[in-house]
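Record format v2
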Amino acid sequence: MEEFLASNRGAVLSGSGPVHVVLGNEACDMDSMVCALVYAYFLHKTSAGGALVVPLMNIAAEDLVLRSDSVALLTKTGLSPDLLLFRDQVDLRRLCADRGLRLTLVDHNVLPDSDSDLEEAVVEVIDHHKLERVTSCPVAMEPVTSCPIAVEPVGSCATLVAERVLQRAPQLLDAQIAILLYGTILVDCVDMVPEAGKVTPKDSEVVLQLETKVHTLPQRSQLFTELQQAKFNVRGLNSEQMLLKDLKSLSGPELNLGISVLYLPLQDFLSRPGVEAELSAFCQKMGFDSLLLMSISLTSTQQPIRELGVFSLSQPIREQASLPQFSPGSSPGSGRVQAGFSCDPGLVCAGNSVASRKKLLPMLKDFLWSGQELMVPPTPVNSLVEGCPLDQGLSPTELQTRLSRD
Ligand SMILES: [Mn+2]
């Protein structure tokens, strides 16, 4: 695997001739990363003609640190991030124009608008999301697709990639490849627990086959727990990286709202030295009027605690909120962070009461409904823990429902 990654990465960066890129989705979560890695390796080993195949991580190299669970899995397999090719390191349009480009999409089935000009390069799709890759034929009104598409509603796209490897090139399944696939399926299928509602019979079957074939795999639940905990690991991240780790934005006619999921207790984040200046700088940099901080952390017994805070640069919004100020650390009254409270009944954050939570609701409602067509983009698959307020994407109604629970 290392040899393949190093040599093909080099040949893409400084060689000539056509390139076949395997590309995951823009969230570049563990599933996208591993599917790109393993499927590119599979194509490299199995296609006749020795086409230059390379997995491309669909994020900037500097953002890898934000995918702490993926970093943990890479570390476990001994793969250095330096072997990976990232989106900011290669110009796909230039490759396409100068050398010829073939694209295989994994873990998504339609390119985002920003990449729609690369559509003609797509030669294959392997995915487990809802199929959106259709163009309507004006006459028959039947969906028309232009390339081989394998879309199945399994828990993890890695299941589909693993299935191909198992069926067509089982000799490739060394300890490294197996653990990449195994760890990803376990994370996506929440430790294969049926109650979590993610696992399908095919996921279970593939996991069993991997366990049967590769005897060096770590114990199932142990690996799952390790990777799950890595997701919460924000050690070494600065405040901006924490805010970026799971960031979504909402914009309406009168509003630019950021929503950041923080993987630590809200109070811990707000106690960071200089946090208010950092929040302010972050909002300015990203063009947000306000920032919703949704934190999720685990108790010692692994129970999730969710908390919410609002930071706003806008005086009217702060006044509208008319909430008791949430004081970061020991500096009361500095407050542009207007509220901090828990979404969970009975777990109320410092300085807040149920009353203040109720006052905040209309403000959030105004935020979220200020645009007629306001839609919250879907949360990147896998980027959030089960049951997080943003899981499955956040609709205004859902948020309000969650916040109204007393
Ligand atoms: Mn996926």
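Residues 30-46 form the longest helix (17 residues).
Confidence is low (pLDDT under 50) at residues 136-144, 321-361, 369-395, 402-406.
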